[in-house]
C-alpha cells in the first residue's frame, strides 16, 4: 500500500533548525518528483519545496528560500527537508507528497499524518 511517514518535527526556538524526513513505500519513489508542504489551521496547504526525481533540481518559494533545503536518498526511499533559521511563522504541520499529488488510497488523494514543527520562545 501507498504510505508516506513524516518525522523529525518538534518544538524549537526562533533561529533553530530541524531535519524532517519522509519515508515512502508502495510506489516507485525514484520515478517521482517530490515536494514538501505545510499547513496551519484555517489555511490551505502551502508548497515549500520541490525536487526532481533524480534530485538534480530543486525549487522553493521566496518565503523559505535560503533557509530550507530539500534532498532525497532514492536508495532509502526517503525525502528530507532541512529547515534552518526558523521563524514563528514557520510553525505548521509539514507533509511530503509526490510533486503532482498522484497517490490515491481508499478512493481519495493520499496524504500522510505530517509532522508538527513549532517555533516559539
Q: What gyration radius follows from the Cα positions, in whole Å?
A: 14 Å
Proportion of helical residues = under 10%
Task: Give a quick account of the main beta sheet: strands, pairing sense, barrel closure.
Answer: 6 strands, mixed
Low-confidence stretches: none
* Strand-pairing-aware structural class: mainly beta
> Could you tell me how far the N terminus lies from the C terminus, measured between alpha carbons in angstroms?
40 Å
Shape: globular
How is the largest sheet built, in terms of strand order? Answer: 2-12-9-4-5-6
Number of helices: 0
Question: What is the residue-averaged pLDDT?
Answer: 97
> How many beta-strand runs?
12
Task: Itemize the secondary structure elements and their pairings.
Elements: E1 3-7, E2 10-12, E3 18-25, E4 34-39, E5 46-51, E6 58-59, E7 68-73, E8 78-83, E9 92-98, E10 104-105, E11 108-109, E12 115-119
Parallel strand pairs: 2-12
Antiparallel strand pairs: 1-3, 3-8, 4-5, 4-9, 5-6, 7-8, 9-12, 10-11
Amino acid at each position: 500500500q501507498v504510505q508516506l511517514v513524516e518525522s523529525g518535527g518538534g518544538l524549537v526556538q526562533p533561529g533553530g533548525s530541524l531535519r524532517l524526513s519522509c519515508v515512502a513505500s508502495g510506489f516507485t519513489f525514484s520515478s517521482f518528483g517530490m515536494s514538501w508542504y505545510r499547513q496551519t489551521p484555517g489555511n490551505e496547504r502551502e508548497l515549500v519545496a520541490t525536487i526532481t526525481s533524480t534530485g538534480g533540481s530543486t525549487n522553493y518559494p521566496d518565503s523559505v528560500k535560503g533557509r530550507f533545503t530539500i534532498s532525497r536518498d532514492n536508495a532509502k526511499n526517503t525525502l528530507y527537508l532541512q529547515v534552518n533559521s526558523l521563524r514563528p511563522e514557520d510553525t505548521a504541520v509539514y507533509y511530503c507528497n509526490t510533486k503532482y499529488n498522484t497517490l490515491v488510497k481508499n478512493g481519495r488523494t493520499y496524504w500522510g499524518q505530517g509532522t508538527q514543527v513549532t517555533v516559539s520562545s
